[in-house]
Amino acid sequence: MPKLKDIMTKDVESCTLLDNVFEVAVKMKEYNVGSIPIVDGEKIVGVITDRDIVTRCIAEKHPASSKVEDIMSRELITIGGDADAVQAAQLMADKQIRRLPVVEGDRLVGIVSLGDFAIRESLGAQASIALEEISESHFSNKPC
Q1: Any idea what the CATH number is for the domain that residue 133 is in?
Q2: Which residues contact 109 (CB under 8 A, 6 or more apart)?
Q3: Which stretches make up the CBS domain (predicted)?
Q4: Which whole number is the average pLDDT over 4-24?
Q5: What domain range includes position 96?
Q6: What count of Cα atoms within 13 Å lies in the side-chain half-sphere of residue 124?
Q7: Model pLDDT for residues 35-74, shown as the tens digit of each residue
Q8: Where are the alpha helices (DSSP H) in 66-106?
Q9: 112, 116, 88, 15: CA torsion to nearest 10
Q10: Number of structural domains, the chain?
Q11: Can you give the pTM of this predicted structure?
């Protein structure tokens, strides 16, 4: 089983605590991503998703100039680069997340997504299982 450090995306776009929500949204659009890690130096301190922008900024009528730290998710779920795809897929399924920051200590070194598993034929089963568990839990717990 390959290690995450071998399959993760290493060149991760991030923002800093000095950026505002507008700048994060522009970067999301530019790189076609739905999640941006927030770093302080090399240390990951949070994550902002497109959903965070909608629910914590727009829906609460905050301006796009709001500081990222006001809307970012601070409860980080991360994994080390020596973990394998099965461990990562299980963590992603358990925590209901589709993207998982990869760290060395508290330093961001990459990110792994369900897509990283899916494009590798041998890991596609892990992505499928994780996505199924994420989707089942998400839809079974939410009213329509």
Answers
A1: 3.10.580.10
A2: 5, 8, 10, 81, 102, 103
A3: 8-65, 72-128
A4: 94
A5: 4-140
A6: 4
A7: 999 999 989 999 999 999 999 999 999 999 999 999 999 9
A8: 68-71, 85-95
A9: 10
A10: 1
A11: 0.79
